[in-house]
Amino acid sequence: MRRKLVAGNWKMNGSLAANSALLASVNAALGNDVACDIAVCAPAPYLAQCQALLASSQVALGAQDVSAHETGAYTGEASAAMLAEFGCRYVIVGHSERRSYFAEDDALVAQKTVRVLQSGLTPIVCVGETLEQRESGKTASVVGAQLGAVLAAIDAARVADIVVAYEPVWAIGTGKTATPAMAQEVHAQLREQLTGCNAEQGAKVRILYGGSMKPDNAAELMAMPDIDGGLIGGAALKATDFLAIIAAAK
Ligand code: PGA
User: Fold this and answer.
1) Which domain holds residue 132?
2) Which residues of the chain have pLDDT under 70?
């Protein structure tokens, strides 16, 4: 049985005051026996603030991106080792917004994944098809290639150290959600690919669903056999919604 993971992706939202209020509400509402793992992936400038706010919390800290390089003359970049120093446990890699707005390709995403693993952190590897790709029957090949590039770059003995997030691009921030059956179909394919790489470890990998997950659809999505949690954008910015999704993750 895989323990579920509910991870908030704040994207480029927040402020010192808003982060403090949001995490205070979340921390106050969580009891000691939370049934799932929880994380928030904050914008880089707020990692130190969030590290302090989460010091004695059940909520782990994550980052939203990382450099593919280890160190050196890469202006504007933050390395995996730096993220680790600020208490990050998770790092999102290959989010569709990075892929589409910042031209990140599968090879770069794979390299970032390697860096995250090297620093002892857990990459949340995002895959997902556009509406056009779905409508032309390419979903399986697109997500297969995205995950395949990552699996080819990492040591097969470390497959269990990654988290995968299936985020259909057409569902992100749009209010359109994949039905549980549609999502499960893709998750099952991803599971097969993971177990094909390493049978024992692939069965342990958490595959999150992301794309307009909300309190009113979270439970039915996470009831599917291969949906092991959620990567939550908009709903992670409201404490009540984020908490309701956490409560749905059993
Ligand atoms: P959303 O975003 O929940 O706002 O659709 C999810 C994501 O992009 O990770």
Assistant:
1) 5-248
2) none
